[in-house]
Amino acid sequence: MSSVLQEVDTAVSVCFVVKLDDVDLGVFSSCEGLGCEVVMETREEGGNNSFVWQLPSRLKYPNVKLTRPLGKDTEKIATWISSMAAGYTRRTATIEAMSTDGQVVAQWGLLDVVPVRWTGPSLAADAPKVLTETIEIAHHGFLPAGR
Predict the structure, then answer these.
(1) What is the pTM of this model?
(2) Where are the transmembrane segments (predicted)?
(3) Sign of CA dihedral 79, 71, 112, 103
């Protein structure tokens, strides 16, 4: 039993490496919003008062929020967002959850990624704390495994 436990690789302490096509956006300390929801439509059938039909219609993907301490890689985010002024190109993103020893624990590929919002640090001299930034991205689904 103990040998089985040693083979299990869990994500106890991880960081998130984000790549946008061939551009490395850097390492993030938190990642929120990876998920998928099946949107259900309800239909009431005439004469059937026992239940309401629930039919799956489409998939919906929440925005993904990535947060990290402010650093040199902030320039890469600023370049990506400022390029939106001249029109945008949807890109593919890869998010890798990595353990502290550099091993990839999990990986997600996101289709048609578009930046939605960037939030910079709140600056206050009387409240010293780690300065963080957050990038929020929209996507249109996950890449199939192995691509």
Answers:
(1) 0.81
(2) none
(3) positive
